[in-house]
Amino acid sequence: xxxxxxxxxxxxxxxxxxxxxxxxxxxxxxxxxxxxxxLDTQQKLARTVRKQVERKFQLEEFHTGHKLFAAEWLxxxxxxAGIGFCQIxxxxxxxxxxxxxxxxxxxxxxxxxxxRAFDTRSWENDALATLDQGEGHAAYLGYLNFLxxxxxxLWPDNRFRELNDRISAALLQRLQNSKTGLVPTYPGxxxxxxxxxxxxxxxxxxxxxxxxxxxxxxxxxxxxxxxxDEQTGLLTQALGSDGLPRDYPxxxxxxLAIFFLRNQTPDLTRKLFxxxxxxxxxxxxxxxxxxxxxxxxxGRGDIDSGPVICGLGFxxxxxSLAGARILNRTDFFRRLYASAYLAGAPVSGYEEVEFxxxxxxxxxxxxxxxxxxxxGQ
Amino acid sequence: MKVKHFKWGLWAFAGVLILLHWILLQVxxxxxxxxxxxxxxxxxxxxxxxxxxxxxxxxxxxFLPPALLVRLSFTLLRTFRNRG
Lengths: 377, 84
What we know:
The complex is a heterodimer.
Chain A: H1 2-27, H2 31-36, H3 39-54, H4 67-91, H5 96-111, H6 113-123, H7 138-154, H8 161-177, H9 192-209, H10 215-227, H11 251-261, H12 266-280, E1 281-284, E2 287-290, E3 308-309, E4 312-313, H13 314-326, H14 330-344, E5 346-348, E6 353-355, H15 359-370
Antiparallel strand pairs in A: 1-2, 3-4, 5-6
Chain B: H1 2-31, H2 33-38, H3 44-83
Helix pairs in contact in B: 1-3
């Protein structure tokens, strides 16, 4: 009897140790290649995303059940694909000729009327036609300008350069006129996360042109003061016109802001990531996940967070891959990648890999976050 | 006899899980229901399909390898003891 119980306990111990070590190791076995930025690994996913971009995304493909969200996802798919391609070229300059047509295709699509219609409908005016005298449009112009600045960094004489200059001037003007240090995404709606790419695009543009030196430091300080929750170090999800919080600090917004701010604002990027690790990082069986809300805050899932299961956010966990790579957190990155593998169900071919459950947007996002540039390299 | 039955039962269970996982993977890929879930717009049936797929995938990756390892350890232990 005692022998039998000992055997059972030994079996249970082996089971638990194996449960902690085996699955997370198996799921995270490609994480070191992504962390090191191996071209072969990056290109497998890039080929899948490039194929999707080349056959052109259609609005009907995005099964969100809501027109505005589907249009935002269409926009987001081209944006994240373009950023992913730019980052690969940044890390492997010899691939410029291979990826520059795809980057330009993404930008052309982002500039098309069908893709920017969601923003035009919300504002009841065209963001590009009202550049000189307009207001707002933080999301459309901010995200677009981030990609334009990134591409200009790779190739300063590209055909979108003049547009990059014009949008940068317009956004700088709008930020300087803002009382809260933020430009509204839609009329009456201020989202700090949408202002992160806007700010990062201006910093990148300033480095490229040398224009407006020093003017961004004050704007960045203003942004940090209004957008960052001092208690947690996380990014507040939404602000009102008075600059006061209208939502809690959240994981999805914080992780996405870190992705865009990256090495453009190293101190703020570190502060946000430390806040995220301290308040939201969770580990189960060797897999890492990120909570959408800090522990004491009750919250539900929405379009920003994706599903929130037992407090764990899909978007927050996925976007955090970028922060872990940017800040060289190798162990956190490996555990997050294992979670992405487990939930994303990648199917590998000889030359391509596709995360089956992600769809076009999920694959484009993963390409962008898994190739986010590491600090100090 | 019972022990032998259990031994093969676990391997058979693994085979069934792999087959089910493959079938559901094709369905999830073709119907792209995960996108609706990510947009928090999935219907009850779609939720059920995704939960079913994830439960099978998690069981296959998380719990089956440790269980097979324990099974294998016991088999090896018995083999060595019988030799001894």
